[in-house]
Protein: Synaptotagmin-2 isoform X3
Amino acid sequence: MELVSIDWNEPVNAVKAFFEKNKISIILGSIGVVVLLVVICICCKRCRRKRKKNKNQEKIKLKGLKPSKKLMRIQPNKNERKAMEELGTISFSLQYDIISEMLTVKVIETSNVPVRDISGYAYAFVVVKLMPFHEDEETEYKTRLVRATFWPAFGDLFTFIIKKEELSSQVLYFYQYELNRWSKHDGVGICTFDLKSVNFTKEKGEEQFSRKLRQFDPLIGLEVETGAVFLGIDYDREEWKLKVTVKRGDIVPMKLDQEKASTYVSLSILNGQDELLEKNRTDVQKGSIHPIFDQEIFFQVPDEMLGDMRLVITLKCKKLLTKSQVVGLFKILPTNEYWKQLIETGHTEGWFSVFSKPKSKN
Structure:
C-alpha cells in the first residue's frame, strides 16, 4: 500500500492568487459594508430621536388639553372629591333607662358621605355594634336600606339590655356600608364612640351626638388581646420629665407549645393631633414569653402638654432574619383612668393590655 503525500501549499497559493486577482473588488466591497452599517446606525439613532421628540410634544399638548365631556361626566366634581376625602359625619342619639336597664341607640343620618356607585342602583345602610357586649354574638344590627345619596337619612332605633355598671367599658361602632351592583357590603367609613364619655348616672332624655367617619376597616372592633405590659409612670413637674419604668411583660402564646420569645417594648409620645414627638425602646429580652425588663425610659414633656398627649405602648417580637413582629399595641389617652391619676398625683402604675387585629384567612 503506497502512502500519498499531500501538498498543502497548493490551496494556500490558490487563495493568495484569488485575493491578488480580485484585490480591488474585495477592498471596495468591505468599504461598502462598513458604510452600510454606519448608515444603518445613523438612521436608527435619528428614528429614536424623532420618537422621543414626538412623545415630548404629545406630553406638552396633553398639559393644556381639556377633558372631554364624556370623561367629565365620569369624573367626580370638586365638591364630590372633597366629600370623598372627608368621608362625612354620622349623627346618632343615645338614651338610657336606669329602671329597665335599656340603652336605646338611634341612627339619625349621615352627611357628606361619598357615593361609590352614582348610577342610581346603590343603597346605603349602617351596622351598629356594641363591643365587647356583642363580641360573642353573631346577630347583625343594621338599619334599613336607603337610596345612596350624600345625605342618607335613616332614623332606625336599636335597644340593648345592659347593666349600668357595664356601660363605661362599652364602645359603640358604626359601620357605613353601600350596597351596589358590584358589592353587597362595600365599606364606606367607620365611627367609634366610647360610652365612657357619657354620664348615664342622671336621668336624661335623648342626647344627640355627631362624629366624623374615618377610613373603613372591617377589623376595627374585633381586636384580640395578645399580651400585656406592666408600667410604672412618674412625672416631675419641676423638670418636665416623664419617667416610664417598663417592669415586665406577658405574651399570649400563638401556639400551645410556645414557651420562648425575644421581645422588647417600644414607647411613643404623641401630641393631641397624633403627631409623633419622641420615641424610645427597651433592650431585647430573650428566652421567655414572660419577660422581665426593669428598664427606665425618660421623655421631656412640658406641663401644659401632659393633659393632651398620648402614650403608645407597642410590644414587639424580635426576629432573626425578618422585620420585628408587632405582638400588640395600646394607646393611653388623656381620658384613661391611669393617666388621670398621673396628672393628679404624679404617679401611676399597672398592667396595660395590648391588642392586635386577627389576620385574614384569605
In short: The longest strand covers residues 224-236. Residues 59-76 have pLDDT under 50 and may be disordered.
